[in-house]
Amino acid sequence: MALNLEPIVGFIQRVTGFELFSKDVYYLDHFPSQVVPSDVLLISVTAVVISLVATLYPSWQASRLPPAEALRYE
């Protein structure tokens, strides 16, 4: 999205008829955006690690429960 920010903002402004960032207020003639591959990689890896770590405690709890006990209340 950062690479196509100008067309996206222009589309939203045309559809809504509302100027999102008024030039009188923000003094911007364009939206600066830069994609840094190392940042994208760091964010992606961190998101995957957090997702995996978030599954450890529930998995550990489920592994301690006998299968017959888990199915009894289903």
Features:
0% strand; single chain; 74 residues; mainly alpha; 68% helix; elongated; 4 helices
What structural category characterises the helix and strand content?
Answer: mainly alpha
Task: Indicate the mean pLDDT.
Answer: 86
Rg from alpha-carbon coordinates = 24 Å
User: Major beta sheet, specifics?
Assistant: none
Uncertain segments are none
Question: What's the topology here?
Answer:
Blueprint: H1 5-16, H2 23-26, H3 37-64, H4 67-72
What is the structure about, briefly put?
With 74 residues, this protein is mainly α.
Q: Mind explaining what this structure looks like?
A:
By secondary structure, the protein is an all-alpha fold. Helices cover 68% and strands 0% of the residues. It has helices at residues 5-16, 23-26, 37-64, 67-72. The relative contact order is 0.08.
